[in-house]
Amino acid sequence: MWCIMAREIRNYLKNPLFWVSLLFIAFMLYQLLNPYLGIHYFQAGEELPELDVERMGDADIMDGYVPSTEEQRLELAWMQFGRELVEMLGLTEDEADRLKESASRLGLSTDQVMDYVWEHYEKAFENATAEHPMYGLTFLYRVYEIHQGSVEEANAYIKERLKEHSFSWYFSRAYADYCGLFLGFVSAVLLAFLFIRDTQRDTWELLHTKPISDTCYIFGKALGGLGAMTLLWGLLTFMFGGLCQLYGKRHGFPVNFGDFLVTVSVYVLPNLLMVVSIYTAVAILFKNPLPATPFLLLYMVYSNMGGQNAQGDYGFYGRPLAIMVRFSGRFFETVAPMAAANQSFLLLTSASLLMFAVIGWKRRRVY
Fold this sequence. Notes:
3% strand, mainly alpha, 4 strands, 66% helix
C-alpha cells in the first residue's frame, strides 16, 4: 500500500499542473488575505477612511469599522434616512423629525416605516428612486450593523476580541475559507489523473491479476491522491501561517501557530478526503474517473451557495455534506453554522465510499 501511495505522490510532483496550481492559489490567497494582515492598533491622529453607504458592506476593522449597538444602528439609520426624506422626498427637517418620533412612540419596525412612507409619499418616492437610489430605512438599518469608530473605539474592539482568541485563530478562519474554496476546485481537476491510467483496458485487466489485496490497492491509491493534495495544502498553510506569525508579532498581537494549524486542518482536510473518495468510487464503478468531474463541479457549486436568513440577510449558513466551509461575518465575528458536525459526516461518508470501492474492486478481480 505504501509503495502505491509513494508512487502516486511522485507522479503528482512530476506533473507541471501541480506546481502551476500551487502558484495560482498562493497568488489569489495573498490578494484576498493581504488586507487582514494589515490589521493593527490605530495610532492617535491616524485618519480612518470614511466609506459611502454602498461600500460599507465590505468594510471591516482594517478600515476602522466596528459593530454597532442596537441604539447606534437605529440612530445612524434614521440620521441617513432623514437626510433622504429631506433631499429626495421634499420633506422639511421638522416633518422628518416628527416621523421619527412617531415611529419610536408607536414602536414601528423599519419595514412598517417604509410602508408608511410609500403610502403617504408614493409619487415623490417613485420620482426619487427613478433619479437616484433611495436606500430606505430597512436597508440602512442592515448596513449600520457596523459604523466607523474612533481610534479609541477601534483599538478597544481589537483588544477585546484578542482576549478571546489569538490573531492566528481569527486569521486561520479567513484562510480556511478561501483556501478550501480554491483547493476544492483545483483538487477536482488534479485528482482526475489519479485513476486515469489504471482504468485503461489493458492496465485494468492486468492489475486485477496481481496478488495485491483489494484494500491495499484502493487505500494506496486514495491515500496517494490525498497525500498529494495534502502536500499542496501543507505548502500553502506553512506559507500563510508564517505570514500570520510575522505580521501578528509585528503588530503586537498574540499569535499561536497551533491555533492556525488546527483550524485549517479541521476545515479543509476532510473536504479533500471527500473529493478523493468520490473519484475513487466513481473510477471503480464506471471503470473511468472522468464522470466524477462534472458531478464534483456541481457539488462544489452546491457547497458554495449562500442564502438568506429569517431577517433577509445574505450569507453562508451551511449545507449538509458541503465540501467547502464558508465563514460568514467579518474578521473578528466569523461563524460557520453546521461546520463541526458537517466535517464529521464527511469523514464517515468518505470511509463508506472507500469501502464501497474496495468491494467493487474485489468483485471485478480476475483469477
